């Protein structure tokens, strides 16, 4: 395996590849009693239309998530139970662009790793088990319909995008998942769960060579590569509509103000993410004038957050939380962004916020889960995520000012609001 | 990892966990006071006011600038409930000196900032600034109102309010909306003075610094608080009721697509104590077996086998002796789900579980304790619980105790667990069965 040390971060990462093409990363952490393993595929909620040897496949919304639930079924029982009986705490998630399976344990690491790699690689679906899961996921979707935080976020994405499947709920709808059969699941598993479209990351006090050897025993498939996907017609550069508003059973209005941003090229990805975060910190950070104004006037609460997100074929910046007057938050944000885009900001603030963002990114590596997912995401994106200290160094005041001037403008934006008052469920 | 507990001053304690495992250190300070309906809201408001401005950093922006200088450190209000104790204070994390880009001491700076915030708030006319009080009070009122947004948490909150209506445990850590809305600058100031005079101050640090270094950095704060404290700080107690108190079913209607079913149980007095911890270890394993994991009885039967709900889980409040079950259910399936949840408890009482299920539950509890040793935040949380409970037990000890729990002990503790109150959140009329 190849060993890479990140001196500043105190990180020690080993990289190797199985014969069948599966990339394996091991972040060695001496002195820790727990281990964390993460096995992921580049397949998420947005991958509904894709190409296989049999031609283009058009699948209903929610298959990636459904498949995540069903993969835990094995010929010998439920993999969750098998791992739990062996002392592990297993789980999985499906995001827009990725499905990941993981466990954390403090004993039986090798046995748990075998189970994890085994059940994800060997599907076992029956019409009966698919029918039963439709009931469970139906309830999960019903529950999601009551979660205003999630709903307002999807409302925003529907405003920003015309075609991109990021508009669609990852879990799908009761109607879309009703169309899923065991055959659908086998087709999707066959296309996306091949070693060439997957990655394994491990964090803990483990022997990297042992991990690689063990993975080689279980994952014996051959890479067939990264399936071609279709995310719909080219997106217009600007937001499709600028406003969305509806009522739900919430106590005070929730909002998300978002900006549609051109998805960065691979070489620019890490830098764009950091530039976007710094732009957010300068405009919306707690030490800034806008935050003080919004907070002191009661227009935002502690439940306020902002951030940049990118997925295959799309990227956006969003800020939101609770507010009794989201429209005025939007107005004030535009005023501040315009001023900063034109006049810039103090070099001193820039340096201090860069330092704060740096400390924050380093601290987050204390979480094994965070580190394992970042390493996997980085591999799928084709970037070295732990190279961020050098990327930080390269960012200039100009980069951030240009980003603000280019993207934080009304044409790119949309405001989604959920107001109290119930509404017809 | 080296754990040092310092009790040099009568009303001030400090726990130091020295380890080089983490890239960021944690520092927290909590005033520990009895949770009471009359004082909860004003107490809860205090740390939010301390975070608004100090003599040296009179605005929140200035405090934020200072924290950003510390590599994006945090020092945030923390209001927690442990049994019938309210813990109010500040909790922060900051980059360990080993990972800083320039030499300096983040610990010293963070300790100084903590002291400044706890002891030197910005004042006007001998009290907190009116403007700050009004702002923070309104935000907390809004936060209390917003509890309804998360229906899963809200159902549990309402359950405990109803079940413990006549106990201090029924009071939320933030107090009630009405009480919070009525707190004046004067009342907040009195609450603050009362905390300084009568509450035990508990400090916690986890990071690379030694106990001596930490003590030195915090000595000024500790001595100043000690000088302000009355001779005897308030004692912390918690009434565990062995038997059910109410035995009611409370139903509330709201515009929701999915119903929530929450069940509250008394554990027959079993809780985390200093003495014989066998029954408590058995309770934790029993909880894991019943509804604490994704392989538990509730998960496997109510969700997986019968598809009656999306989630069904149980949890134990260590110091109070209460267990809760929380579940998301279609309105039409409420009765069926409730019956199934109770049947599964009956099964455990009768010893109707496999050796594999038992081992899996034991291992789940062991794993929770062992992995907590690898997390700064969970070490802090454990320290807070044991400080409040007056229990001296480490995470590895708890893990060992869980490992020794037998089948008979699990069944026996399940027989002690008694249903008290049921809370149901259902749809409004005309929404029959929701879907």
Please characterize this protein's 3D structure.
The complex is a heterodimer of chains A (425) and B (435). With 425 residues, chain A is of the alpha+beta class. Chain A has two domains: 217 residues, Metalloenzyme, LuxS/M16 peptidase-like (Cytochrome Bc1 Complex, Chain A, domain 1, 2-Layer Sandwich); 177 residues, 2-Layer Sandwich (Cytochrome Bc1 Complex, Chain A, domain 1), CATH 3.30.830.10. Chain A is built from 15 helices and 16 strands. Chain A has a seven-stranded mixed beta sheet, sandwiched between helices. In chain A, strands 12-16-13-15-14 form a five-stranded mixed beta sheet, with helices on both faces. A two-stranded antiparallel ribbon of chain A has the order 5-6. In chain A, α1 crosses α7 and α3 packs parallel to α8. Chain A is globular, with a radius of gyration of 22 Å. In chain B, the strands form three sheets. Chain B has a six-stranded mixed beta sheet, with helices on both faces. Chain B has 15 helices and 13 strands. With 435 residues, chain B is of the alpha+beta class. The termini of chain B are far apart. In chain B, α1 packs across α7, α9 crosses α15 and α11 crosses α15. The longest helix of chain B is centred in the middle third of the chain and has 18 residues. Chain B folds into two domains: 227 residues, Metalloenzyme, LuxS/M16 peptidase-like (Cytochrome Bc1 Complex, Chain A, domain 1); 179 residues, Cytochrome Bc1 Complex, Chain A, domain 1 (2-Layer Sandwich), CATH 3.30.830. Chains A and B meet through α2, β9, α4, α10 and α12 of A and α2, β5, α4, α10 and β11 of B.
Q: Could you name the key traits of this structure?
A:
heterodimer; A: 425 residues; alpha+beta; Cytochrome Bc1 Complex, Chain A, domain 1; 2 domains; seven-stranded mixed β-sheet; five-stranded mixed β-sheet; 15 helices; 16 strands; 22% strand; globular; B: 435 residues; six-stranded mixed β-sheet; 44% helix
């Amino acid at each position: 395996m190849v060993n890479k040390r990140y001196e500043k971060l105190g990180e020690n990462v080993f990289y190797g590849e199985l014969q069948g093409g599966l990339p394996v990363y091991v972040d060695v952490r001496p002195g820790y009693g727990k281990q964390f393993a993460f096995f992921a595929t580049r397949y998420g909620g947005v991958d509904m239309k894709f190409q296989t040897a049999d031609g283009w496949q058009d699948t209903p919304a929610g298959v990636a998530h459904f498949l995540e639930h069903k993969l835990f079924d094995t010929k010998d029982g439920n993999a969750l139970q098998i791992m739990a009986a062996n002392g592990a705490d297993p789980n999985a998630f499906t995001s827009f662009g990725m499905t990941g399976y993981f466990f954390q344990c403090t004993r039986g690491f090798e046995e748990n790793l075998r189970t994890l790699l085994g059940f994800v690689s060997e599907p076992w679906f029956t019409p009966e088990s698919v029918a039963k899961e439709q009931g469970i996921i139906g309830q999960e979707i019903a529950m999601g319909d009551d979660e205003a935080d999630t709903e307002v976020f999807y409302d925003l994405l529907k405003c920003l995008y015309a075609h991109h499947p990021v508009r669609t709920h990852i879990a799908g709808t009761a109607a879309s998942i009703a169309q899923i059969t065991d055959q659908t699941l086998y087709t999707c598993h066959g296309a996306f769960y091949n070693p060439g479209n997957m990655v394994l990351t491990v964090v803990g006090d483990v022997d990297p060579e042992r991990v690689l050897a063990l993975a080689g025993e279980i994952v014996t498939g051959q890479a067939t590569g990264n399936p071609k996907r279709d995310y719909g017609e080219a997106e217009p550069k600007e937001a499709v509509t600028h406003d969305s508003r509806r009522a739900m059973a919430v106590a005070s209005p929730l909002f998300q103000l978002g900006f549609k941003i051109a998805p960065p090229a691979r070489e620019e990805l890490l830098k764009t993410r950091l530039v976007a975060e710094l732009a957010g910190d300068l405009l919306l950070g707690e030490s800034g004038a806008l935050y003080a104004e919004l907070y002191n006037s009661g227009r935002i609460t502690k439940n306020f957050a902002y951030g940049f997100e990118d997925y295959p074929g799309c990227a956006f910046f969003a800020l939101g939380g609770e507010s009794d007057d989201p429209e005025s938050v939007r107005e004030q944000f535009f005023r501040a962004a315009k001023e900063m885009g034109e006049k810039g900001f103090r070099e001193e603030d820039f340096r201090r916020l860069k330092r704060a963002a740096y400390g924050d990114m380093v601290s987050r590596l204390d979480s094994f889960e965070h580190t394992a997912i970042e390493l996997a995401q980085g591999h799928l994106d084709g970037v070295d995520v732990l190279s961020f200290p050098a990327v930080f160094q390269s960012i200039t005041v100009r980069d951030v000012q240009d980003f603000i001037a280019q993207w934080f403008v009304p044409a790119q934006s949309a405001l989604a609001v959920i107001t109290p008052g119930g509404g017809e469920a | 990892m080296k754990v040092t507990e310092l009790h040099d001053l009568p009303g001030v304690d400090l726990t130091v966990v020295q380890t080089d495992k983490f890239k960021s250190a944690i520092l927290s300070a909590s005033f520990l006071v009895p949770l009471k309906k009359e004082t909860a809201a004003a107490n809860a408001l205090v740390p939010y006011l301390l975070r608004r401005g100090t003599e040296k950093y009179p605005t929140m922006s200035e405090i934020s600038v200072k924290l950003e200088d510390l590599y994006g450190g945090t020092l945030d209000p923390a209001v927690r409930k442990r049994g019938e104790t309210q813990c109010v204070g500040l909790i922060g994390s900051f980059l360990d000196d080993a990972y800083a880009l320039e030499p300096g001491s983040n610990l010293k700076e963070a300790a100084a900032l903590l002291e400044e915030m706890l002891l030197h708030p910005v004042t006007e006319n001998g009290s907190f600034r009116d403007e700050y009080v009004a702002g923070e009070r309104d935000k907390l009122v809004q936060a209390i109102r917003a509890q309804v947004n998360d229906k899963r948490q809200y159902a549990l909150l309402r359950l405990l309010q109803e079940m413990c209506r006549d106990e201090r445990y029924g009071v939320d850590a933030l107090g009630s909306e009405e009480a919070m809305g009525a707190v004046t600058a004067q009342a907040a100031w009195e609450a603050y003075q009362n905390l300084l005079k009568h509450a035990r101050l508990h400090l916690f640090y986890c990071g690379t610094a030694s106990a001596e270094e930490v003590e030195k950095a915090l000595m000024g704060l500790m001595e100043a608080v000690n000088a302000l404290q009355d001779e005897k700080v308030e004692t912390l107690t918690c009434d565990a009721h062995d038997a059910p108190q109410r035995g009611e079913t409370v139903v509330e209607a709201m515009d929701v697509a999915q119903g929530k079913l929450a069940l509250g149980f008394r554990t027959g007095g079993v809780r985390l104590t200093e003495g014989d911890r066998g029954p408590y270890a058995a309770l934790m394993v029993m909880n894991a077996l019943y509804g604490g994991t994704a392989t538990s009885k509730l998960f496997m039967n109510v969700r997986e086998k019968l598809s009656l709900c999306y989630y069904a889980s149980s949890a134990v409040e260590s110091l109070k002796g209460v267990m809760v079950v929380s579940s998301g259910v279609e309105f039409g399936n409420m009765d069926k789900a409730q019956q199934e949840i109770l049947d599964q408890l009956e099964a455990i009482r009768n010893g109707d579980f496999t050796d594999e299920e038992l081992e899996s539950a034991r291992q789940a509890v062991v794993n929770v304790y062992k992995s907590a040793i690898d997390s700064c935040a969970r070490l802090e949380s454990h320290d807070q619980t044991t400080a409040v409970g007056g229990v001296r037990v480490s995470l590895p000890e708890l893990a060992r105790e869980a490992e020794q729990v037998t089948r008979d002990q699990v069944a026996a503790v399940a027989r002690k667990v008694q249903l008290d109150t049921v809370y149901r959140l259902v749809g409004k009329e005309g929404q029959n069965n929701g879907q």
